[in-house]
Fold:
Amino acid sequence: MFGLLLLIHVGLAQLGAASTVYDTSSLQARSYNTTVSWGSCGSDYERFQCANISVPLDYNDASDTRTATIFVNRIQGTNTTHKLGSIFINPGGPGVSGSIFNFVLGQNLSAVLKGQYDIIGFDPRGVRQSKPYVSCFDSLLEEEMFVRNTSNFRLNLPSNITSDVAENLKYQLINVTSETAALSAQCFERLGNTVKLFGTEAVVHDIDILSKLIDGDDAPINYWGWSYGTVIGQYMLAILPPERLGRIIIDGIVDVVGWSDYPIQPVNVTTDMGHVLEGFATSCASSGNACAISNLTAPGILSMIDNTLDSLYRSPAFVTDLGADYGQVPINAGNLRYIIFEAMYDILSWPLLGEILSEAFSGNYTLIAQATATGLNSADASQPDDSGYATSMIYCNDAKPYDQSHPPLTIDQLTQNVIEAVTQNSPVLGEMLYQLGLCQFWGNIMPSKSRYNGTFDLAPGTLRDPILVLSQTFDPVAALASAVRTQERLGDNARLVQQVGGLGHCTISQVSFCTLPIVQSYMLYGELPDGDYTACQVDQLPFTPFNESAAANRTEGLDLESREAWIALSASLSTLEAL
Structure:
């Protein structure tokens, strides 16, 4: 949603070798791992070890002896004297590679935790290097052709929904749902019944097995999850016995009760999207030369965005200077909306967004094309596809299937849901992630064989170590309200930390030297903040070069290595986005 990231999903897909196309005929009876055979991850990742671990494919059918293979990597803690075990990490998505996330951020996470944990990254079932993975095309080139010849789920909308716009939106959704149904059939043809086995319930059981193999049967599972990774964390609390659970941090909270209900609609996802966009406009306008459109007022920036969307909606442009692999690239309002949406995840991307908007306001759309166009490279015909549609497949395994009391939505209802989100949440970005509500068109998934159907409530005092719940004030896809509901539902089993003034997806995207010692005290010593709620000010501001000395009053007692690693975590997200 929900990825640290949906935003960096494309970047992650470009880093590291793609997994081979999975042939479901090879899903035969195999013995499960009893030990882990760690090996080299290659010369580029000398500090890491990698392994493939077999787990049951279907946990709900004891007669099914087939296995899935989970790709795992780790960076070992350097403080062997005070070792605290392992910590599993997941960056979100769903569908983002946890192993690649670990390759990029693992050393900094290890430093933040003072080398006392092994950092374990893994590709959840259905994703990237794990097998089976969500493979819907014969090659990467075929996937690129599909993306290029379809809407790629982007809706072409102006800033104001009139009756004519609503009718056009309905037509767009008819096309999108047809494309989705065709894609679903193609995925099912390649994957068969395994499409029903990618749910989060199964992922939690996978983590349980991985933990026992890596750390031993009696070692508690420590976990740090962002975005959709917070869904995994909350499922762990509900599914696993309390004695299996160690110290758990979830950051950028998804409301797991809504996640597991009937397919979610955009009005419930983008609640704070408009506030983040307003934060961009306000900080840009007051930034001096740090933002390319700071000559405009904040209302002026928002007005120019509206005007540009309206112009591209009425008269799509064409960019022809990207090279032969791209040809003539059409640009409409949907492209610009998506660019802005991506930038809302991370304030460090806002200077680039200012440059893109400056060019777009002048009628130059090359930067938009560079960021959103899909090229066709003949060499990709020999490369496997990259599990790009794992997000919908995993989510639709978790969602409640429609029934007689709650029938599938009509096109008119889907249209009204998009209009409601745009009207209530943001005229520029309200519709984002609407495709999560299209599970009825992924018809071969439901009913899932890996859907958790129980409660997410915990009795008071259930957890030996209450979890840490972290949230920004304004998160584009994981509203603070979701974090508040989560803490209230878990009661004394959770503590909430809000980064006051925080803008962007997950607290990790914006430095706070108040949040850092809370994380360290919890993960290293099991110490929790007093009370259910703690407010932490952010120390990193949009369009402002980060100056650690400005936060001197909050760095006392924090060692230099920890501070530098905490800062580097935020910067690493921007590195991933640029890939």
Summary: The chain is about 35% helix and 15% strand. Residues 5-30 have pLDDT under 50 and may be disordered. The first strand starts at residue 2 and ends at 3.
